Prior knowledge:
The chain is of the alpha+beta class. It has a single domain, classed as CBS-domain, CATH 3.10.580.10. The protein is 36% helix and 23% strand. Strands 1-2-5 form a three-stranded antiparallel beta sheet. A two-stranded antiparallel sheet has the order 3-4. The longest helix is centred in the middle third of the chain and has 11 residues.
Amino acid sequence: MQTAGDIMTTDVITVTPETEIVQAAKLLIDNRINGLPVVDDQGRLVGIVCQSDLIVQQKRVRVPSLFTLLDGYITLSSARHFEREVEKIAASRVQQAMTPDPASITPETVIEEVATLMVEKNYHTLPVVKAGRLVGVVGKEDVLRTIMLGK
Length: 151
């Protein structure tokens, strides 16, 4: 059975939390990739920034709906969710736009499990981590290539 380690890309383009958003967007476009793992200075995975995280900067902010009850205001959505959305829209650094603690797989994860995660969770890129450090990534194209080659 093939594993993530068999099909992963090991020459991974990464960014740090301090990378500027414009630089991350350029890396995504120039390399025609959907996501960039975010690593700390020890190579540990701390987040992932995807095209959708950057596109959100063009989004309109939806103010949370409020209703009054006994002269008090109650929001119909989480204040933290609203704050996070505003933070992403105003982001100038990757740390502000990234998804922290992203889903990841190990080199031993079988392809069927990788495909299931991608389909069920709508992931385009999965970081591959071994002993806490980023060792590769598996993208949808990697899985499709494996299927096409019949392996």
